[in-house]
Amino acid sequence: TTFGKLKNNVSKEQRLKKRKREEDDLELYASVARRKGTSNRKERGSIRDRRPHVIMADRLESIRSAIESRPSSGPFHKPVNRRTWPQYYEKISNPIDLSTIRDKIQKYEYRTADAFLKDFELMKSNAIKFNGAGALISEEASAIYQVVKDKVEESRAELTHLEEAVQEQMSGKPKKRSNKKGSKGGSTPGSGFTGSGSDIMDIDFNFDGISDSDSD
């Protein structure tokens, strides 16, 4: 009958609508899962870049790479050659150099700006100890240390904020407002050894929000 056909058509239409809703719901769920999941590399990478330990590493690397561009910084770029200068390692027990500092930055070993600065102080003291205070390379090492120290002090407020965020990220505790400065950290092996002084480019430390490590 006409009524029976109409009823069948209505129920068929309802089934099609229901199936469409289910498919739409499934697609919506899948898109949310893709956003939240770990398979979306691009999104995962952008979230990682906003984490405080990554931002901190970027800030420290901007200082280190600027130091590396100094005309007279060549002797500090890589570790002192052990074969050529075996006596260096007899006298210097804790060598450090710019490539070692770069590796530590990449591994997020600097949890504080002071730990980073301490490695440049070590580089200066190694150069003076091996070459003497009046040597050109020792003067360059001292100039490098002063530039890094000045840049860290200029940006102390922002860097302290990052240090606190890194500490918070590692501890997993809720954030507490604090005016404390970041604690001092240790250092690692590094270099200093045969150049002259020159100035460094200005580094802009304007950075906005922090959202999502490791130590000396």
Q: How does this model look, in words?
A:
With 216 residues, the protein is mostly helical. It is built from eight helices and no strands. It has helices at residues 2-36, 41-49, 52-68, 86-91, 98-106, 113-131, 136-154, 156-171. α3 runs antiparallel to α5, α3 (52-68) crosses α8 (156-171) and α6 packs antiparallel against α7 (136-154). The longest helix is centred in the first third of the chain and has 35 residues, at 2-36. The N and C termini lie far apart (86 Å).
Protein topology:
Elements lengths: L1 H35 L4 H9 L2 H17 L17 H6 L6 H9 L6 H19 L4 H19 L1 H16 L45
Helix pairs in contact: 3-5, 3-8, 6-7
Number of helices: 8
Largest sheet: none
**Helix and strand run:** HHHHHHHH
- The computed structural class is mainly alpha
- End-to-end Cα distance, whole Å, is 86 Å
Cα-based radius of gyration, to the nearest Å: 28 Å
Helix content: 55-70%
Give unreliable regions as ranges. Answer: 28-38, 180-216
